[in-house]
Amino acid sequence: MRITCPYCGERDIREFTYRGHALAIARPAPDAGEAAWDDYLHLRDNPAGATQDLWHHGPCGAWVIVDRDTVTHEVAGSKAVAEVKR
Amino acid sequence: MVSLVPKSPCADLLPLAIAETTVSEVVPEAITLVAPFKGKKKTVSDALKAEVGVGFPAPGRMTGKQDARCIWVGPEQALVIGPAVSPDGAAVTDQSDGFAVIQITGPMAANALARLTPIDLRRDHFKPGHTARTLLNHMTCSITRLGAASFEILVFRSMAKTAVHELTEALKLLEGRAKLS
Ligand SMILES: [Zn+2]
């Protein structure tokens, strides 16, 4: 598998670390309530098909959102978390 | 009174020459991490130009030359290698003692590196002045192309011995293979 770091370009998978589903960057407000926090911390879908992952490109330190297909293993695209979440 | 003797990261390890390819250490005057604050990249780039004559590099690029150069090492981060700098508008950290700076030059330089890093080092893809944050076998490193057959490698100082070992083994293997053919 190869992932495109938005800064470094297309790179080998060994340069990256998987950091879970990309919804990890959508942190609820501190007062969002137990249900929202339970969902955020513990509940994940297990899609057969399109999903969004969070990957860390270790050598440059960038956090990357990767659009990926769990059935075909196709990587459709990627963007920097820093560009999405300001 | 104890008198401490300063030692460079690759003292006792380099230089070495295998298969007409040399591996040598560079000990710069200073290594400074410059991380411009939000919206300050242009200001910082201008300040660096005024101080040492090199601008802040784009991702994957080096600016400047051997005596003062600035290499990109991450989003909004670059290392100035050469004279110490202190531009306004950036977080500035002296990392002079933190890195081993190794240059590998010669006919086997690219082939030796190709055994250790997953990036594409072909000349039309990775040109002089291009730099990459990547791996040297298991180590995080920066690789910068200085010329057709010349590269600079930066690793953490604590990994100097391992880095030299990796390069030595790769060169020995290539040398051995050349003797067979
Ligand atoms: Zn990267």
Task: Describe, in plain words, how this protein is organized in 3D.
The complex is a heterodimer of chains A (86) and B (181). With 86 residues, chain A is of the alpha+beta class. Chain A has one domain (2-83): Folate-binding superfamily (Folate-binding fold), CATH 3.30.2270. Chain A is 15% helix and 42% strand. Chain A has a 4-stranded antiparallel beta sheet. In chain A, strands 1-2 form a two-stranded antiparallel ribbon. In chain A, strand 1 and strand 2 form a beta hairpin. In chain A, 21% of the residues are buried. Chain B has a 6-stranded antiparallel beta sheet. Chain B has helices at 41-52, 109-114, 160-180; strands at 16-18, 21-26, 30-36, 62-64, 69-74, 77-82, 90-94, 99-105, 131-136, 139-147, 150-156. Chain B is an alpha+beta fold and 181 residues long. Chain B has 2 domains: 9-28 and 97-181, 2-Layer Sandwich (Gyrase A, domain 2), CATH 3.30.1360.120; 29-95, Alpha-Beta Plaits (2-Layer Sandwich). In chain B, a hairpin with a 2-residue loop joins strand 5 (69-74) and strand 6 (77-82). The A-B interface holds A 7-9, 11-12, 14-15, 57-62, 80, 82 and B 59-60, 73-75, 77, 118-119, 132-135, 140-141. Bound molecules: zinc ion.
Shape field of chain B: globular
CATH-assigned fold name of chain A? Folate-binding fold
Order of helices and strands of chain B: EEEHEEEEEHEEEH
CATH superfamily of the largest domain in chain B: Probable tRNA modification gtpase trme, domain 1
Q: Do you know the CATH architecture of chain A? A: 2-Layer Sandwich
Beta-strand segment tally of chain A? 6
Which regions of chain B have little confidence, pLDDT < 50, spanning 5+ residues? none
Brief descriptors of the model:
heterodimer; A: 86 residues; alpha+beta; Folate-binding fold; four-stranded antiparallel beta sheet; two-stranded antiparallel sheet; 2 helices; globular; B: 181 residues; 2 domains; five-stranded antiparallel beta sheet; 22% helix; binds zinc ion
